[in-house]
């Protein structure tokens, strides 16, 4: 939506981000510059690594509020490229849903995947890690997460629950 305004006013905009999203060609402008870490590429590589190292079936879960929707999608593409299969998906923290972990954890147990991939950040990362540990899945089903699931802002608060978990970052 800013493209036309930037062009008409000849004002450059530099967008910096972690790059959880794949840059799409629409909206290109000579006044719009992107600087990115291309985190989605790490997610794709993590999916391929997980299929080769942990198992061929994965359950993917993430928060409704997680901004890195391409990260989870690219994890799935990497997993599938390496011969893996996504056996379930779940979105937690949906508006007006007070308990999204109980059904998500039941779906994980029913799917019985080789691994779980989780895309969460901030308070939702803390919520997820607590629920995963309380469900006694930690240590039984390997947990692979987006870089933000275990970043410095939440890692210490995860405590023992983060031990043995893997991040593509």
Ordered list of secondary-structure elements with their pairings:
Blueprint: H1 3-9, E1 13-17, E2 32-36, H2 39-53, E3 57-63, H3 69-81, E4 85-92, H4 101-111, E5 115-119, H5 122-134, E6 143-145, H6 152-158, E7 166-167
Parallel strand pairs: 1-2, 3-4, 3-5, 5-6, 6-7
Helix pairs in contact: 2-3, 5-6
Please provide a written account of the structure:
- With 169 residues, the chain is of the alpha/beta class.
- The protein contains 6 helices and 7 strands.
- The chain has helices spanning 3-9, 39-53, 69-81, 101-111, 122-134, 152-158; strands at residues 13-17, 32-36, 57-63, 85-92, 115-119, 143-145, 166-167.
- It has a 5-stranded parallel sheet, with helices on both faces. A two-stranded parallel sheet has the order 1-2.
- Helix 5 (122-134) links the parallel strand 5 and strand 6.
- Helix 2 (39-53) packs parallel to helix 3 and helix 5 runs parallel beside helix 6 (152-158).
- The longest helix is centred in the N-terminal third of the chain and has 15 residues, at 39-53.
- It starts with a helix and ends with a strand.
Structural key phrases:
169 residues, alpha/beta, two-stranded parallel ribbon, 7 strands, 39% helix
Averaged pLDDT = 86
Largest sheet: 5 strands, parallel
Q: How much helicity do the residues have?
A: 25-40%
Record field, number of beta strands: 7
- Tally of alpha and pi helices: 6
Oligomer: single chain
Structural class: alpha/beta
Which percent band covers the strand fraction? 15-25%
Strand order of the largest sheet: 4-3-5-6-7
Our Rg estimate from Cα atoms comes to 18 Å
Order of helices and strands: HEEHEHEHEHEHE
Low-confidence stretches: none
Shape: globular
| Straight-line N-to-C gap | 31 Å
């Amino acid at each position: 939506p800013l493209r036309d305004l930037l062009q008409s006013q000849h004002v450059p905009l530099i967008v910096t981000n972690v790059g959880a999203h794949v840059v799409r060609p629409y909206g290109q402008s000579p006044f719009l510059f992107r600087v990115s870490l291309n985190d989605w590429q790490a997610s794709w590589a993590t999916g391929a690594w997980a299929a080769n190292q942990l198992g061929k079936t994965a359950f993917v879960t993430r928060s409704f509020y997680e901004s890195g929707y391409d990260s989870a999608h690219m994890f799935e593409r990497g997993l599938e490229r390496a011969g893996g299969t996504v056996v379930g998906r779940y979105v937690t923290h949906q508006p007006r849903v007070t308990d999204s972990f109980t059904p998500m954890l039941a779906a994980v147990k029913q799917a019985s995947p080789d691994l779980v991939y989780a895309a969460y950040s901030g308070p939702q990362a803390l919520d997820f890690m607590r629920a995963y540990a309380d469900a006694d899945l930690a240590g039984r089903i390997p947990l692979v997460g987006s870089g933000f699931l275990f970043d410095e802002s939440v890692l210490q608060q995860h405590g023992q629950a983060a031990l043995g978990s893997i991040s593509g970052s």
